[in-house]
UniProtKB/TrEMBL annotation:
Entries under InterPro entries matching the protein: CoA-bd, NAD(P)-bd_dom_sf
Domain (CoA-binding): residue spans on this chain: 34-128
Pfam families given in the database record: CoA_binding_2
Protein name, UniProt field: CoA-binding protein
Domain of life: Bacteria
Length: 180
């Protein structure tokens, strides 16, 4: 099968270009700048289930970042002891960054909601890629990041990847002995 005629985006971790991906996201410096100017984050699709990625990200953002964090989930009343809102329009503030944990088919609608409330950035989590959502957000002037984790990127830029077990600085296959 030939890949001739397919436009693909090179991903640094991918062995081959990903077919069908034509949108090119911001580089590391641009992502750093986005996170630096962000003051508030709304997590759309936030969950009170500790097994969900959105819960892990929310826990990290609340404990290890300077952001004001808001939760959007129409089926929850509180998450991590904070109020959960039914939609972005119900938030008491306009979020700078909308971090999305939703199904692929929901992403264009969430992008439009982010535009409608005046957010500055649409951020789709790891595994989320929707060029229609990106086009909606970019046409309205929003910055867009797709298929990246806010928690990982924040930790990466602020030297905290070791907090999640990454980049411990130890290069060894042996388990470290704890000194008493």
């Amino acid at each position: 099968m030939s890949n001739a005629g397919l436009v693909a985006c090179e991903l640094p971790w991918a062995k081959e270009p990903v077919a069908g991906r034509t949108w090119v996201g911001p580089g590391a410096q641009e992502r750093y700048d986005i996170l630096r100017r962000t003051k508030s984050i709304a997590i759309v699709g936030a969950s009170d289930n500790p097994a969900r990625a959105s819960f892990f990200v929310a826990t990290y953002l609340l404990s290890s970042s300077p952001y004001d964090v808001y939760f959007v989930n129409p089926r929850a009343t509180t998450i991590l002891g904070r109020p959960a809102y039914a939609s972005l329009a119900d938030l008491p503030v306009v979020p700078d960054l909308v971090d999305v944990f939703r199904r692929h088919e929901d992403l264009p609608g969430v992008a439009q909601e982010a535009v409608d409330v005046g957010a500055k950035t649409l951020w789709l989590q790891l595994g989320s890629w929707n060029e229609e959502a990106a086009a909606i957000a970019e046409a309205a002037g929003l910055a867009v990041v797709m298929d990246r984790c806010v928690k990982i990127e924040h930790a990466r830029f602020h030297g905290g990847l070791h907090l999640a077990g990454f980049d411990t600085g130890v290069i060894s296959s042996k388990r470290q002995l704890l000194s008493r």
